[in-house]
Amino acid sequence: TKTPYFSSEATVSSFMPAAAAYRLLQQAGFADPQLRATLEDRLTIGLQHMYASQKLDGGWGWWRYDTSSPHLTAYAVQGLIEAQRAGFTVDQAALDRALVFLTEALNTSPYLSDPNDRAYVLFVLSEAGKPDRGRAVNLYNERSKLNAAGKAYLLMTLQAVGSEESRIRTLVSELMGSAVLSVSDAHWDAGEMLPWALDSDVTVTGLAVRALLRADPQNFLIPNAVRWLMGERERDVWRTTYDSAGAVLALAEYAAQTGDLQADYRYRVALDGRTIREAVVSPATLRETDRVTIPGADLKSEGSQVLLQRQAAADQSGKGRLYYTLRLRYSEDAASAQALDRGFGVRREYIAVASDTLSPTGQLITQARQGDLVQVRITLSVPTDVRYLTVEDFLPGGLEALDTSLKTTTAAAR
């Protein structure tokens, strides 16, 4: 994600996922010279900016002349490590000074009094090859104070230092227990976060994915959480630079384990036993999206079966997963529509309004005449938490909403 504001966070959020993507492409042998050139340019510019904005104490703040922040310094170190892993030369003296700053901050900084912040710094130190096993184990003993992000960081830290398997299993179980599940996906809520933490549901879900990939790679929540992350994109990016970085890091780690970049399979789409599409997926076609549209007239009134079948390609390797979304769109005569329960209920009522007092009478009506006043009442029944919900109710033909903000509308209507 490009940004015109070169704060330390925005700079790291720009080049860190680029480094992860670059390393992934290298591992997969994925040939894309233009993309490689773009990633290399972003990494080079980002690294130079970070060297120029590092403080004398080895840390980074939001801006060049701000006070050093342990959290932002840890984020900067994480970015430098990702660049190093991608094969780029990193100024070792700058990295070493930052690591000293973080180590000292664990002892002295009031900004690391929160255990979730300590979990993040310990994770970054372990990524840099400077693990603190004693502090990590102590933090495990007070894990009840950690939120989902803190537990994900601690889980990755303990996995890196080779902690006891029982601790790993416990954290995996607790992380799974805090997941928010739906029919088709899973995510984690950020909850109450400290202002400088920057985390959101997207970044916390990305962290949980990475932690589970490292500790329990076959966990069923991983593909569900990846599906949720992909659904949170807006025009191929996420809401903030920090969100985009966290999501891309998780997706890069996921793709590296699944082997999806070496995809080599064919698939078939059939309707009621009749093949309507066949195609081959290979590294050359990964960026292509295939859309198959089935007219409603081709569906049987008693029910039709849509079959998506994945098969190994010619060399029988069969690498990669088939990703698909199946949508059904239809319209129905409102007069004959039956109420459905799909997780929450919506009830609409039309109520007569007295023309003299402009107060609802409580009488439910099914028809109105010109000049009548009607109150529309929507009742929602939502038994569980939902992230975003828009309810749009169209007015029947002939009705017109009263705009109570206009002086031409009587004050009684308000």
List keywords for this structure.
three-stranded antiparallel β-sheet; single chain; 11 helices; 414 residues; alpha+beta
Descriptive report:
By secondary structure, the protein is of the alpha+beta class. 41% of the residues lie in helices and 12% in strands. It contains 11 helices and 8 strands. The chain has a 3-stranded antiparallel beta sheet with strand order 4-3-5, with no helix packed on it. The protein has a 3-stranded antiparallel beta sheet with strand order 7-6-8, with no helix packed on it. It has a two-stranded antiparallel sheet with strand order 1-2. α7 (148-161) packs parallel to α9. The mean pLDDT is 86.
Order of helices and strands: HHHHHHHHEEHHHEEEEEE
Query: What is the mean predicted local confidence, pLDDT?
Result: 86
How many strands, what sense, and barrel or not for the largest sheet? 3 strands, antiparallel
Low-confidence stretches: none
| Rg, nearest Å | 27 Å
Q: What is the total tally of β strands?
A: 8
- The oligomeric status of these chains comes to single chain
Task: Categorize the overall geometry.
Answer: globular
Please give the order of strands in the largest beta sheet.
4-3-5
N-to-C terminal Cα separation, in Å?
45 Å
Task: Kindly estimate the percentage of residues that lie in beta strands according to DSSP.
Answer: 5-15%
Query: Percent of residues in helical segments?
Result: 40-55%
Number of helices: 11
